Amino acid sequence: MAWPTVNEIKAYSADVPEVVASSDSVIEGKIDDAKIFIKNHCKQEFDNPEEAGTTKYFNGNDSDVLDLYPRCTAVTAVVDSTYDFTSLVNLKYDNNYSYLEADYPVYGYGARYRVRDRLDPDKKMFMLGSNNIQVTGTWGWDAIPEDIINACKEIVERLILKRLDIRQWLTPFKSERTGDGYSYNKAEAGSSILDYELASKLDPYIYNLANITKL
Questions:
Q1: What number of helices (H) and strands (E) belong to the chain?
Q2: Helix (H/G/I), strand (E/B), else coil: 5
Q3: Residue 123's pLDDT is what?
Q4: Among 159, 138, 151, 146, which residue's Cα sits nearest to residue 2?
């Protein structure tokens, strides 16, 4: 699925005269604004996936869990500088996370760590280092999720109805003239767009690496 077109926006908001009467150029601009709003809220992109087989480099963190960003949906190789341990990891991913998890062989008395020398059970899979873990796989989204497309349509409608501009939420403060100069207050454009209904569509896609190791 792709981002909505002008005609799809007008069909979605067919009962909203302000949207139907808007020019194509205005709606196209609001679609772009909505895409930026979604990207900032969800902390990830939903189009232009990278070519399958792209290799990215990550810092080893001396643990058995390695956070991956952007979203990864398939892994073909995992190497730490000199040692290929693709068969010893599992890829975990969902809407809002992706990570590698060590997959050690299990014996009768519990998990045993399988590392290069297979002698030191205290060593972790992703050994500490700078860009020492190479991950080759498929990154991003093959198709934009339906919830995200519907959220885009809803945001465009709200932007037009409320006559909001993207600069109103990219700028953290708004200025107001007072008797002796200007005073500055927090801009509220973002909160005037986002409500419970819209948040329920977007929040499951917020890319949050901080909680991955707790899953």
A1: 7, 11
A2: coil
A3: 72
A4: 146
Integer Cα distance of 147 and 194 in angstroms = 15
Distances in Å between the Cα of 131 and the Cα atoms of 80, 127, 134 are 9, 11, 7
**β strands within 103-214, DSSP E:** 106-107, 110-111, 133-139, 173-178, 181-186
Domain boundaries, the chain: 6-47+145-206, 54-139
d(CA 201, CA 157): 16
Average pLDDT, the chain: 81
Token digits of residue 189: 């454009």
Report yes or no: 44 and 70 within 8 Å, Cβ to Cβ: yes
Q: At residue 138, what are phi and psi to the nearest 5 degrees?
A: -110, 125
Q: How far apart are CA 66 and CA 102, in angstroms?
A: 9
Class of 6-47+145-206 in CATH? mainly alpha
pLDDT for 57: 95
The alpha carbon dihedral of 32, 37, 38, 39 has a sign of positive
What's this model's pTM, rounded to 2 decimal places? 0.76
